[in-house]
Each structure stands twice: as C-alpha cells, then as structure tokens.
Amino acid sequence: MRQKPPTYTYKTKKILEKRHPAPEFYFVVGADSLNKLKSEWQYGKELFEHLNFIGIQRKDFLIKEKPKYHENTSRRRPT
C-alpha cells in the first residue's frame, strides 16, 4: 500500500478496514514501543483501545499496561 508521508498506523488501519472489512487485524510490536504507544504515537490512545496487539517481550522492557486485545508471546516456544 502506498501512502504519502508521513504515514501513521491509525491511517493505515482505516484504509485496510475499508479494503478488507471482515478480517481482524493484528499489530505486532515490541514491549518498548507498546509502552510508548499511548503517549508518543499519532492517535495512540485510539490504537491502544481498538487495535489487536501481539506484544513481544524484549530484554530489559516489561509491558507496563496491556491493551484490550493483548497477547504476550514471551512464554510460547516453537514446536
């Protein structure tokens, strides 16, 4: 998908929802970015409440506040 800069996750989410109305979208993000989402991202509070997140635990970064749809993959092991 091509967009004119700056591109924001919130805007991309809206475009994807129009193009593909039925699927649920999941956003994979590291714990460090997830912790900054609400305060530093464009429309961060809305994303935090309305987007499905898969939070990846990173060394030295704990997930401080879990969003509504949060999945912590740190305990999963490949089979």
Characterization of this structure:
The chain has 79 residues and is an alpha/beta fold. 35% of the residues lie in helices and 16% in strands. It contains 3 helices and 3 strands, in the order H-E-H-H-E-E. It has a 3-stranded parallel β-sheet. Helix 2 (31-40) packs across helix 3 (44-50). It starts with 8 loop residues before the first helix and ends in a 7-residue tail after the last strand. Residues 72-79 have low confidence and may be disordered.
Strand line-up across the major sheet: 1-2-3
Instruction: Spell out the helices and strands N to C.
Output: HEHHEE
Largest sheet descriptor: 3 strands, parallel
User: What is the end-to-end distance?
Assistant: 33 Å
As residue ranges, the low-confidence spans are 72-79
Q: Give the count of helical stretches.
A: 3
